[in-house]
Amino acid sequence: MSTSTYNQPDVQPRTTDSPRWAILVALGLLLAAAIAPLAIVEGFKLVQAQFGYGGDLAVTYIGGGLLATITIGLIGVTYYRVRPVTVHVPRWLPTLHESGWIVAGIAISFVAAILLGIGMQVLNAVPPTNFLTAAASDRPVLVYGFALFGVLFIVGPIEEYFFRGIVQGRLREQMGPVPAIAIVSIGFALGHVPSYWIGGSDLLSLGVFFALVSIAVASVILGAIYERTQNLVVVIVIHSLINAISVSLALVAALGA
User: What are the domain boundaries of the chain?
Assistant: First the structure.
């Protein structure tokens, strides 16, 4: 497969757009990826209530959360078909060198998360509750079990395709990788705000602030590794494994409580 475009090596992305227009387009994509999933989840709540499952966040997470994630992927695919973007997928199996980046990316991400966690403790910030943890409060095995499958095979691939492949790729064309990574990382973090809102957290709390900073830092790491390896599969694996480890730890803690 060509490294120039994703699944369409004969189509070259246009590069005549201005940086300002590229930023506006990227912001529009990021906004759509935040608002559309939230609307779907809220709509799913109304539908499930008609079937006698109103207020059941486990059902909302499994059904609405799945549809919301798929929607992000559809937004990316739709945009790509209208305006092709360079998405690097030279191979589906990482090389030994790329595997080293996978290990490094996971390690650096967890070190950053630990340091931010220490900062939260110093400032007595209360860890926020997101959509997943709220949904798992009553049925942890069901929700975390589904989430474990989802983060490995759905969330990681779709989010990396959209945020790193489409949006970062779009910005890179006009601005270079550093500004592209910065803008995408801010958007990636803010895109998780609805998750904390659905989870019932105070969006103005220090806990949510630290959580969003942690997500932004992870995005910077993923964005940098993507640019370094030029292989979307590498960051998909990193993203998926980080989430899978976090979900597994949450499940173990819930079972031991």
Answer: 20-256
